[in-house]
Amino acid sequence: MEVQDLATQFTLIADKEKAVRMSAYMKNRFEFFGIQTPERRKVVSTVFKEWEVGKKPIDWKFVFDLWKQSEREYQYVAVDYLIKSKKYLSADDLTQVKELIISKSWWDTVDAIASGVVGYIVRTFPEQVKMMDDWIEDDNMWVKRTALLHQLSFKENTDEERLFYYCEKHASDKEFFIAKAIGWALREYGKTKPQSVITFVEKTPLQNLSKREALKHLK
């Protein structure tokens, strides 16, 4: 697998006008080819099929090569690649995943990694939940956000005690991306255990943003 194979395809369908708008939406933090998600995934789906992605062990060199590229679409491909290949993820891969989280960090990649990659590793290797206990204490905001969001898809398998502990620990945090993550994590869990979330929110001094997000569909 080579990045150049994707570069050739992406260059053919690049759209400069869309690239400007997409970059602006991401606060001009990244360059873009201007390829929107449906178009990108159509190209990537064909390439992944040729490469037999999901049937072979993860090529971490390829992942990090994608991460080094300037255009943001490459990082999206890296995340899609990891999710497609998730059955090959190991417990030790959290170390490499963390490198992705703290590099070129923004919500678009971090959130997908949190739920689709980190969450999968923790569910598959339950002992790695201890790593989440470390991450919730991390100095890096995006690592903390990942710890808060990794159970998003767990539903009835959510570790309620741990979720509430993480949220309470950062209840007073005024950082937008942390307060928003707390609300989002609680809102998702509220679809499974609404009364538990309502009770927790009522007794916990959360930021207003967290409360609004948590109770958006419950009250």
Q: What's the gist of this structure?
A:
Pfam families: DNA_alkylation (PF08713). This protein is 65% helix and 0% strand.
Strand and helix layout:
Blueprint: H1 3-13, H2 16-25, H3 37-51, H4 60-68, H5 72-84, H6 94-101, H7 107-124, H8 129-135, H9 141-149, H10 160-169, H11 176-190, H12 194-203, H13 208-215
Helix pairs in contact: 1-3, 4-5, 5-7, 6-7, 7-9, 9-11, 10-11, 11-12, 11-13
How would you portray this structure in words?
- This is DNA alkylation repair enzyme.
- The chain has 219 residues and is mainly α.
- The protein has 2 domains: 1-88, Leucine-rich Repeat Variant (Alpha Horseshoe), CATH 1.25.10.90; 91-218, Alpha Horseshoe (Leucine-rich Repeat Variant).
- Helix content is 65%, strand content 0%.
- The mean pLDDT is 97.
